[in-house]
Design goal:
Chain B: Keywords: Membrane, Transmembrane, Transmembrane helix. Chain B: Pfam families: CbtA. The structure holds two protein chains of two kinds. Chain A contains three helices and no strands. Chain A is an all-alpha fold. By secondary structure, chain B is mainly alpha-helical. Chain B is globular, with a radius of gyration of 21 Å. The two termini of chain B are 15 Å apart. Classes of the chains: A mainly alpha, B mainly alpha. At the A-B interface, helix 1, helix 2 and helix 3 of A face helix 1, helix 4, helix 5, helix 6 and helix 7 of B.
């Protein structure tokens, strides 16, 4: 019985860890996308709109 | 978990992004506008334009001179065909777009920073967040600025794609190196690898133009580099501590 509780405790912890991992990966990808679109994407309209922010944050800019 | 992560990141991103746009309005935008007056004036000086045209032949680009490098770009993409050469009008419209882009960058960096904190540390509060924010500043501003200092419009620079590649490589190497040094609890060999990883991009070296050219005085460029680093430092400190603060506040409500 004790063993069963221990196993389920581990699997609950493991599931929480997997939840964190999934959410963190999603946030990393989404966050990178936002930073890339504002700070690095080449289309003129994005460059011109974010121009001053790109310079202020030291992103390479033409 | 996903909702809470995105909610906290949105809140902290807005706080830090708003801080950044206020700092920009006072410290970096005035220097950018002044540099642009030199850049515009230089367009009327045939000698300098000749030098720029010559420089472009060997792959040197003058920062922020749309016309000079338009010919070098590949076929225009979808967004370029829709919007053409649109740029916000100086004044309120330009300030508006600068603020919006600061908020979006703030949200993006907040998501990445909070994700890193969740993976790398057990306890998250304002002071832990501040430490991670400072690490973010080191990775995203300090390390890249050693090879590619923040530039004002009208400076010669190497090919954009090459500089962007070096910038991201440096960010990833510095962040990875700091992770090995600070967040992992493994032995000295891995910590030494972390230090080496931080050094590699600077040993390789950033792409630079064959000759340095600028339309604005060097003092203005120096002042801008300092102002930009200060703005980034405050932005990252505010971002990290508000992420930690908002995250720990949520936990109290859950309990």
């Amino acid at each position: 019985m004790e063993q069963v509780t221990a196993i389920s405790a581990v699997s609950v912890k493991g599931r929480a860890r997997a939840d964190v991992l999934k959410a963190a990966m999603l946030a990393l990808v989404f966050g990178f996308g936002l930073v890339y679109a504002t700070g690095f994407a080449h289309p003129n309209v994005l460059h011109n709109a974010a121009h001053d922010s790109r310079h202020a944050l030291g992103f390479p800019c033409h | 978990m996903i909702n809470r992560l995105f909610g906290v990141a949105l809140g902290a991103g807005l706080i830090a992004g708003l801080t950044l746009s206020v700092l920009q309005a006072f410290f970096t935008v005035p220097i950018i506008l002044e540099a642009e007056t030199y850049e515009t004036a230089s367009a009327l000086t045939p000698g300098l334009q000749h030098a720029i045209a010559h420089a472009n032949d060997v792959g040197i680009w003058l920062a922020s001179s749309g016309e000079a490098h338009a010919a070098h770009e590949a076929a225009p993409g979808f967004l370029d065909r829709v919007f053409g050469e649109w740029a916000p009008e100086d004044g309120l419209e330009r300030t508006f777009y600068t603020t919006v882009s600061s908020l979006v960058v703030g949200f993006g960096f907040a998501l990445m920073a909070l994700a890193a904190m969740l993976l790398g540390t057990k306890r998250i509060d304002a002071s832990v967040g501040l430490a991670w924010g400072i690490a973010g500043f080191a990775a995203f501003s300090l390390a890249p600025s050693l090879g590619l200092p923040p530039e004002i419009p009208g400076s010669a620079a190497a090919d954009l794609a090459g500089r962007q590649t070096w910038w991201w490589s440096t960010v990833i190497a510095t962040a990875g190196g700091l992770w090995l040094l600070l967040a992992s609890r493994r032995g000295p060999a891995l910590k030494a690898a972390g230090v080496a990883l931080i050094l590699v991009p600077h040993v390789v070296g950033a792409p630079h133009p064959e000759a340095f050219e600028a339309t604005a005085p060097a003092e203005l460029a120096g002042h801008f580099a300092a102002a930009s680093l200060v703005c980034s430092a405050v932005f990252w400190a505010v971002l990290g501590s508000s992420l930690g603060w908002l995250w720990s506040r949520g936990k109290e409500e859950d309990a």
